[in-house]
Amino acid sequence: MSHSMSSPRNIQLVFETYQKARLVFVQTMADLATRATNVKCLESAGVLELLRPLLSDGCSTVRQCAVVAAARLAEHDEGVARQILNSGMLTIAIENLNKFNVYYKRSALYLIRAIAKHNEELASAIVRLGALEHIVSCLEDFDTQVKENAAWALGYIGKHSEHLAGLVVDAGTLPLLVLTFQEPEMSLKQIVAGALVDLAQHKPEAVVDAGAICHLVRGLENQDPKLKRSTLCALGAVAGARASLGEAVVAGGALPPALLHAGHDAAPVRRAAACLLRDIVKHSVDLAQLVVNTGGCGPLVELLSEGTGGARIPACMALGYIAGQSDQLAMAVIEAKAVVVLVEILQSNEVQDADLCAAAWTLGHIAKHSPQHSLAIAVANALPRLLQLYTNPKSSNEVKARASCALKQSLQCCLHRPALEPLLHAAPTCILKYVLAQYAKILPNDARARRLFVTTGALKRVQEIDTVPGTSLKEYINIINSCFPEEIVR
């Protein structure tokens, strides 16, 4: 080697070239890792083995880019996430979390959430590595993005199971999350609200005990639709868990803004509001009554007309829960003109099975209380359509089951003869017995109905029905026949 080659300047140049090459490598890997299609190729080229030593590199930019590259790869592929965990790369990132600058901290938290999001097994492994205390300490950091990534990671760990959510809560996260939710940065608020949704799915009482409800309700005053949606979802996750928690959400002032947001411009916000109302009314007659008294039926009925956006089904179910609680509440649903819209859903050929099921279920809950309630369903011409859905071989099993249940609930109270007659000629035996049971109640006391029963051919149809002695069907036919002179029956 010549003397000029071994001069201090040239030696330094070798090191600078090496550092530049490392930097170009990690930056290129981080860029390539943004596309999921590149992951398999990078993995088979041994990218993880090359990135591993660079996680603790002497150059801060190399370190940080190496962690970002690993995080992006882990985010796209569960297998890669598992390799990063098993190879000790995550352990290195966690150990270095509080050693280096704020950029490294952001990236390391990103890596944690990228691995945690996949499944409970990976999230549990992260907890076993002692990551929780590091993540929780990052919620108190000055940097907004560090706090965002910490909240995100906690939500991703806690969402998988009650056990993991319990560990996250026990680490003292909720008071800090509630505090962080009150900070002014919009993206931070959105992410914290999302983490509260994830934890409230499994630990709703803890969210209430941390004093989150009033702050979440206050968050609805914000104009950002994403934040509104996440906040309504968090309140819904709490309210849906138990009646006492539903009452806590209502007591925290969530009901008026929920009704207001049922008419919001953004479809995801309307859907989240409908879900919250559904999760409140399902528990008790008192909560359902409260929603009705606050003017809840109108906004819910309006949401039934929405073909897209996903608000129709939760709105439909909310009305079903309200109607199911008592005959007066069912009457309030009828008076809000819900029945007509529900039947329109049933009649439409464009709707999904889930919409048909929800509409049928709700109609059954409205009709089941009394002849007056059932009359509203019968007059809206719902019964022939329910029968059609039940007997149609193309209907799914779920649709058939819901249609059959709604038919039976409606028929058991129905004394409206014009609605019963078409079913007499079209219904299969399992539905027919409910039709005949109603005729057995009507005919003994109504001479005009008996006359019409003969002249329309209904009595003739009854004689054609195959029955087995001793069954309820045979019993109803005997009661009907006993209403007429023997020669007419013959």
Automatic annotation (TrEMBL):
GO biological process: cilium movement
Listed Pfam families: Arm (PF00514)
GO cellular component, one term: microtubule cytoskeleton
One example GO MF annotation: microtubule binding
Lineage top rank: taxon: Eukaryota
InterPro entries in the record: ARM-like (IPR011989), ARM-type_fold (IPR016024), Armadillo (IPR000225)
Listed name of the protein: Sperm-associated antigen 6
UniProt organism field: Euphydryas editha
